[in-house]
Amino acid sequence: ELFTMFSNSVTNGGKTTLAEKLKTMLPNCDIISQDDFFKPESEVETDERGFKLYDVLDALYMDEMVTSIRNWIKSPASSGVVTEEPQNTCDNVKNVYILIVEGFLLYNYEPLNELWNRRYFLTLPYEECKRRRSTRVYQPADTPGYFDGHVWPMYLKYKNELEENASMQVDYLDGTKSQEELLSYVYSDIIQELNKLRE
């Protein structure tokens, strides 16, 4: 039995940390990260202000990402997924394979829409997001004004598109909450969904 969940987030919202912690708590769990599918810098478009347009789908090899996800779904046991059971795993979820897909641009990409069981979206207010972004080192480094000129406007555009799509079931999570609180909520929600699948 397969269960796929998507963890989407504003930049520095905590999705990668959340995904990695969940992986240690869930049976037969694997992660595919959107960050692994960025095109090289030379292939990423630059706008008229000189900003590299990384926060758009065209900056990513999305076809390759979809292929990786579909290949995992076809054969999760051969994907290198860790099959050692975490402690305290409920008996009724031991025979399931779980895939967590984490990234920042997942839900507006049509070929992925049929693959989900649950969708989560971590949000942050502007000031906290900008503060966290400033503590990170990127390759290539953010140019002056990049966050306000490209990153934040793209996040707002993307989030607005999601909210306007009535058919899109997304669980919005407050990224300012503690990792423990977020982890507890998402873990409980996944277990509840797995139990429903078994009924």
TrEMBL record:
Which Gene Ontology CC terms are recorded?
cytosol
Q: Which UniProt keywords apply?
A: ATP-binding, Kinase, Magnesium, Metal-binding, Nucleotide-binding, Pyridine nucleotide biosynthesis, Transferase
A GO BP term here is: pyridine nucleotide biosynthetic process
InterPro entries, A to Z: P-loop_NTPase
Lineage, please?
Eukaryota, Metazoa, Chordata, Craniata, Vertebrata
Stretch forming the signal peptide: none
What SUPFAM superfamilies does the record tag this protein with? P-loop containing nucleoside triphosphate hydrolases
What family does this chain come from, according to its entry? Belongs to the uridine kinase family. NRK subfamily.
Can you name one GO molecular function term for this protein? ribosylnicotinamide kinase activity
**Pfam families per the record?**
AAA_18
Q: Does Nucleotide-binding count among this protein's keywords? A: yes
Q: So, what pathway does this thing act in?
A: Cofactor biosynthesis; NAD(+) biosynthesis
Per its record, the protein catalyses:
beta-D-ribosylnicotinate + ATP = nicotinate beta-D-ribonucleotide + ADP + H(+); beta-nicotinamide D-riboside + ATP = beta-nicotinamide D-ribonucleotide + ADP + H(+)
| Descriptive protein name | NRK1 kinase
